[in-house]
Design brief:
The complex is a heterotrimer of chains A (516), B (349) and C (373). Chain A is built from 18 helices and 22 strands. Chain A is of the alpha/beta class and 516 residues long. Chain A folds into four domains: 157 residues, 3-Layer(aba) Sandwich (Rossmann fold), CATH 3.40.50.300; 67 residues, no CATH class; 174 residues, Rossmann fold, CATH 3.40.50; 71 residues, no CATH class. In chain A, a hairpin with a 2-residue loop joins strand 14 and strand 15. Chain C folds into two domains: 70 residues; 265 residues, ABC transporter involved in vitamin B12 uptake, BtuC, CATH 1.10.3470. A two-stranded antiparallel sheet of chain C has the order 1-2. Chain C is globular, with a radius of gyration of 24 Å. By secondary structure, chain C is mainly alpha-helical. Classes of the chains: A alpha/beta (516), B alpha/beta (349), C mainly alpha (373).
Chain lengths: 516, 349, 373
């Protein structure tokens, strides 16, 4: 293994070898998209964005570069020297650092303690380390006090601590995996400011995202990955977000726009003064009141963690301790069990399909039964009707284009998008009157996304009421008849999707904007 | 997938079966080899209870008797021990395997074998069996019951405890609460009461059926004994097999006294705790086994009940260490009274 | 597809073969290291059992099978019912007392005692289920504690009701009258070649186990809860209710464990009544992968190995500890090799799915436009 320390003296220049050069990287996994012939050059002193759909192979590629997984083929060169990265430790030695999407910080420790954890040998754990942290913070404008407790820091500051940890370990190449996913708009701007500082200091930043506007605003170069391979490297000056998106999906981009309104005046779901008090602290849900009519899609916008998950679980009857009333089609279901609600015609596409939507180690036809145990075609007289359930699974596989050899395959063997299509197909069967859809297209490919949108639109036309929760503002605006913004467990504004812009929604979601 | 697994499992069983058929002739050959040996030689089958040889309790005592006899008479012996929680059929099978392989006599150590011996003795009328600690098979012609009057020996050490105590409180620790161990307790209590009426006896058992760990858990023994010493007892008698080591340790730490059981534990205990052992209740299982085998060698196979009591010196108390020399006269007085039938020692507490 | 089926069949075969080869190799090493005659050991183990040994194996397997079923029922819902041991002892004792008192005539008495045993076993396990559902107490902890309580309770009650035969140091409940005993089934000559008549009930229990779990909606709910509590909740299953019911059923089956012995052999519950069956059941359930046929094979394997203990000690002269090690090695290799083969099977399936995906026409026509900067 050769892992030379990157030379710091060489200034960025056209002749110098690129900081990172990936050539012909390939990686195969059973059943999932991996990497195939990936070629990327990243120059020193630049921000290089890697964009691609979920599942396109970005994460695998970055794991290879960070030494988490070895590539099956291809070479990695860092500053012109070929390296073999067998572990993150090798990668750190070679000057590669990674900031993961999910922070890896101990809340009850200070910034200093979090930083030196595992890197005690570099500058000790006391004054030396503190001075070094201050110096890095100063140099790159990170604005971090080494002695604050991590639990007192906001999300943006925590992310800067993660960046600082990487720099503290001597990284010259910083990988950020979807860093903006957890940030609100002004924090994103701050992050980009920090990244530009890093670039100015001669570091190179590899920035993974699928938010194209952000990528265009911050990156010096953009590499597009589709189906595991690099399809293009473009200059952000010359392309639009739509061009990028079409590169990502390889075809015309579908749009989620709804046609004419199908909203009726028949109230299907009525939520009145719904609350979820917490004995010691702010209520998770506070006096939430809304109606959804037949044929109406109500979109809920909000930064993740503001009560959306709790709202869904409360309506599904999965949350004990809620107050207020919920009625479905005029019938009070406040005290009904989840099963009674489901059998009353509520379909449910859960946010986390692995945790709430599937039995991963069961065949697809059993997953078809899940949540529909009590009615045909799943069961009859208390007995599971395997033949009918299998037949209906075959129908879903055909109608929803679930890519699988057959209904007897374990759910685990399917890719995320196909799992999601199966769930949507299942929840749309047995004629629901209300669909609770939490992030219905999260992590699915564009083709599947379009199909799911079409199914929701069709059902809406036939009178289905939909509660749509999504982090994708375009999806919300495109599908909803009305959008409610949720912030800290409360409804803080109603918007008309026909006139609202993502920017307006964004500021309402963070509590910055005017209430509608 | 699942179905093929099942099928495979069945097939495996089949393979095992086939392999087993192949091995059959092998086994026959071996049996033939066994029957070629001269038949005059006595082969003893020894079926121990759970714990087997090395349990520092009555299995060991039986083993000692076997070793002695083997050396003296030059007889061949094979041993097998019970597993914890084994089925009744396993006990039966142990005896049958011995009998089938030509072992005669077969000695079953422990009352747990009673039902098995009863069954198997009927199946093998030409094989002689002996069972220790049970006399429910007294009428079976090819079974010898070797039983002990543990209550009589315990009476004597009870008297010793009462005469030795300064606090007026003594203790009894049984290994597992079975009727057999309750005999020890009953005799002990009677002895205490006879020697010094009004002496308090604290009594406890380490475990309950079917948990037989009370016979092999020094830590439990130690904890129980510590409790008794803390409560003011200064002499503790244990009938807890291998757990007794813990009782001695506790006595040593509390500067108290302890009474051993089964064998003369003054000689076998760890030297560091030797000093606390004032006497031991002797239950001479080794003597019983030895005598039984001597009878077999002589051609006079014992049958029926042989009772090892004070009179037969099957039970008694030990004097090693000289710590009961001062009261020996009194103890021997009680002994004589029991032998003469003037004192009737109860068998249940 | 046919070739895939062949591969799956071979995979199914691979696990037991792998297990046996590994067990053979490791055990031989242990024997050689301990200086025991490995050849004699194997020829003894692999010699065809005599009729009475066969009967013993089947008898013990019957008991172990019920224990394995009881444990497996909990396992299918991810409940670790360590307490089968206590449950069966409490239940067997109850059945012995009820049947011994013979309040009802003949087989009515038997049936009543069996129902009582199941009820008591269910109740004993139900305590752990209720604690888990209402207070979140781990059933592992509570059932271990309940085992200890069962030991004390049964020992106490046994002394209360015990009768003792003259000259015996054993105590037991009153013997079950002859009319209420379950007759044994002969598989050869003589009383030593009989197996428990209770085997019919055990087989029925196995069938019901399969039917309830695989064919009923209740069984689906139970398996779903076992696989993913969160998905079960989202699908409308009341996990608390399922926890209590699953424990009740597991305990009810546990109540049957001691009954073949009680009604077919000992006719009374005494101080020598077989103990530790619940723990063997855990290993057997694991071995049988919680599948009623697998559990039967596991129970037979256990009973078979147990039956080898005496011949190995007496005929070959191997120490009992080595015999125990041999048994442990065989069980371990079976568990490990099944797991290895299972994982390999999953990988194989994922590959198959990937291939099926690749065979599909691409969702979007591939037009890899190169855009240069």
């Amino acid at each position: 293994m050769s892992s030379p320390a990157p030379s710091l003296e060489t200034p960025p220049s056209g002749d110098a070898p690129p900081a990172v050069r990936l050539r012909g990287i390939g990686k195969r996994f059973p059943g999932v998209i991996a990497n195939d012939d990936v070629n990327i050059d990243v120059s020193r002193g630049t921000i290089h964005a890697i964009v691609g759909e979920n599942g396109a192979g970005k994460s695998t590629l970055m794991k290879i570069l960070y030494g988490v997984q070895p590539p099956d083929s291809g070479t990695i060169e860092i500053n012109g020297a070929q390296v073999a990265l067998h572990s993150p430790a090798d990668a750190i030695k070679a000057g590669v650092g990674m900031v993961f999407q999910h922070f890896m910080l101990a809340d009850n420790l200070t910034v200093l303690e979090n930083t030196v954890l595992g890197a005690e040998r570099l500058h000790g754990i006391g004054g030396g380390a503190r001075a070094q942290i201050r110096r890095i913070s100063e140099q790159y404008g990170l604005d971090i006090d080494p002695d604050r407790l991590v639990e007192d820091l906001g999300v943006g500051a925590r992310q800067r601590v993660e960046i600082l940890k990487v720099l503290y370990r001597g990284a010259q190449i910083v990988i950020l995996d979807e860093p903006t996913a957890v940030l609100v708009p002004h924090e994103v701007d701050e992050l980009f400011g920090n990244l530009r500082e890093l670039k100015a200091e001669g570091l190179c930043v590899i920035f993974i995202s699928h938010k194209l506007d952000e990528v265009l605003s911050v990156a010096d170069e953009i590499t597009v990955i589709r189906r595991g391979t690099t399809v293009a490297t473009v200059d952000p000056q010359g392309v639009s977000a739509r061009d990028l998106a079409e590169l990502m999906v390889g075809s015309e981009l579908p749009s989620p726009s709804t046609e004419t309104s199908t909203v009726t005046d028949h109230v299907l779901l009525s939520v009145q003064h719904l609350g979820l008090p917490v004995p010691t602290g702010r209520a998770l849900l506070d006096d939430i009141t809304f109606d959804i009519h037949r044929g109406e899609v109500l979109g809920i916008a909000g930064v993740e963690g503001n009560g959306q998950a709790e709202l869904v679980e409360a309506i599904m009857g999965m949350r004990p301790g809620t107050t207020g009333t919920i009625s479905l089609d005029g019938r009070d279901i406040t005290h009904e069990s989840t099963r009674e609600r489901r059998e009353g015609g509520v379909g449910y596409i859960p946010e986390d399909r692995h945790r709430h939507g599937l039995l991963l180690d069961s065949p697809l036809w059993e997953n078809r039964v899940l949540g529909h145990q009590g009615r045909p075609p799943s069961s009859r007289h208390g007995l599971i009707d395997k033949r009918a359930a299998r037949a209906d699974t075959e129908r879903i596989i055909a109608e929803y284009d679930v890519r699988t050899p057959g209904p007897d395959v374990l759910a685990r063997a399917l890719s995320g998008g196909n799992q999601q299509k199966l769930i949507v197909g299942r929840e749309m069967s047995s004629e629901p009157v209300l669909l609770i859809a939490a992030h219905p297209t999260r992590g699915v490919d564009v083709g599947a996304q379009a199909a799911i949108w079409t199914h929701i639109k069709n059902a809406r036309r036939e009178g289905l009421a939909v509660l749509l929760i999504s982090a994708d503002l375009d999806e919300l605006i495109g599908l909803s008849d009305r959008i409610e913004v949720i912030l800290r467990g409360r409804m803080v504004g109603t918007f008309d999707p026909a006139s609202v812009t993502p920017q307006q929604l964004g500021s309402a979601m963070t509590g910055a904007g005017p209430e509608a | 997938m699942r179905r093929s697994m099942k099928l495979a499992a069945v097939l495996t069983a089949g393979i095992l079966t086939l392999a087993a058929c192949g091995g059959d002739s092998d086994n026959d050959a071996k049996d033939d080899g066994g029957s070629d040996a001269p038949k005059s030689d006595i082969k003893v089958g020894m079926a121990y209870d759970v714990g087997g040889r090395g349990d520092q309790s009555f299995n060991d005592s039986a083993a000692a008797g076997l070793d002695e006899a083997a050396k003296e008479f030059g007889i061949e012996a094979q041993e097998s021990e019970a597993e914890d929680g084994e089925a009744e059929t396993a006990r039966e099978e142990r005896l049958r395997t011995f009998a089938d392989a030509g072992y005669n006599p077969v000695i079953a150590v422990g009352f747990a074998y009673a039902a098995s011996v009863g069954k198997v003795a009927a199946e093998y009328p030409d094989t002689n069996f002996a069972i220790i600690d049970d006399e429910s098979l007294a009428d079976v012609p090819n079974v010898a019951s070797l039983v002990f009057s543990e209550e009589q020996g315990s009476f004597l050490v009870g008297a010793a405890a009462a005469l030795k105590t300064k606090t007026g409180t003594v203790g009894f620790i049984g290994g597992v609460e079975t009727p057999l161990i309750q005999k020890f307790e009953a005799g002990y209590k009677a002895g205490v009461e006879a020697a010094k009426p009004g002496t308090k006896v604290e009594s406890t058992y380490l475990t309950q059926i079917p948990d037989f760990s009370g016979f092999a858990d020094p830590a439990k023994g130690k904890t129980a004994a510590q409790g008794m010493f803390d409560n003011g007892a200064d002499v503790v008698y244990h009938a807890a097999g291998g757990s007794g080591g813990g009782v001695f340790e506790a006595a040593s730490e509390a500067k108290g006294m302890a009474i051993g059981v089964d064998s003369d534990q003054y000689n076998t205990a760890d030297p560091s705790v030797q000093d606390v052992i004032i006497t031991s209740m002797l239950k001479n299982v080794n003597v019983a086994v030895h005598e039984y085998l001597a009878g077999v060698v002589d051609g006079k196979v014992p049958a029926g009940v042989t009772r090892y009591d004070l009179k037969a010196d099957g039970v008694g108390y030990s004097t090693s260490g000289g710590k009961v020399d001062d009261i020996a006269e009194q103890l021997d007085g009680y002994k004589q009274q029991i032998i003469d039938g003037e004192i009737e020692v109860p068998t249940t507490p | 597809m046919t070739s895939a089926r062949v591969i799956r069949f071979l995979l199914g075969l691979a696990a037991p073969v792998l297990a046996l080869v590994a067990a053979f190799a490791i055990t031989s090493l242990v024997l050689v290291a301990a200086g025991d005659p490995a050849g004699d050991v194997w020829s003894t183990i692999l010699s065809w059992p005599e009729e009475r040994n066969l009967a013993n194996i089947i008898k013990n397997a019957t008991v172990l099978y019920l224990s394995g079923l009881a444990v497996a029922f909990g396992f299918r819902m991810n409940l670790f019912n360590i307490g089968v041991d206590g449950q069966y002892r409490v239940a067997a004792f109850t059945a012995a007392v009820v049947a011994g008192e013979a309040w009802l005539p003949g087989y009515l008495n038997t049936a009543f005692a069996i129902v009582c045993a199941m009820a008591v076993g269910a109740m004993w396990a139900g305590i752990a289920g209720v604690l888990r559902a209402t207070r979140g107490v781990s059933e592992v902890i509570s059932t271990i504690m309940l085992n200890a309580i069962a030991t004390g309770l049964v020992a106490y009650l046994l002394r209360k009701v015990a009768v003792r035969e003259a000259g015996s140091n054993d105590i037991g409940t009153k013997e079950i009258p002859e009319g209420s005993r379950i007759p044994n089934i002969s598989i050869g000559d003589g009383p030593t070649s009989e197996i428990y008549g209770f085997i019919v009930i055990a087989a029925l229990a196995g069938f019901l186990f399969w039917f309830v779990l695989n064919k009923t909606r209740f069984g689906f709910d139970l398996r779903a809860t076992g696989q993913s509590t969160t998905a079960a909740v989202a699908s409308g299953i009341s996990v608390k209710k399922m926890t209590v019911i699953a424990m009740l059923i597991s305990g009810g089956v546990a109540g049957l464990v001691g009954l073949p012995i009680l009604f077919g052999d000992s006719y009374a519950y005494g101080s020598t009544f077989q103990s530790g069956l619940g723990f063997a059941g855990i290993a057997i359930a694991l071995l049988g992968r919680n599948n009623p046929i697998g559990i039967a094979v596991g129970a037979l394997l256990f009973a078979f190995l147990d039956e080898q203990s005496n011949p190995l000690q007496i005929l070959v002269g191997v120490s009992p500890d080595i015999v125990a090690i041999t048994q442990g090695v065989i069980v371990l290799t079976v568990v490990v090799s099944y797991e290895l083969v299972r994982r390999y099977g999953i990988r194989l399936e994922q590959r198959e799915v990937a291939r099926a995906l690749a065979d599909h026409p691409a969702e979007h026509p591939a037009d890899d436009r190169e855009v240069s900067a």
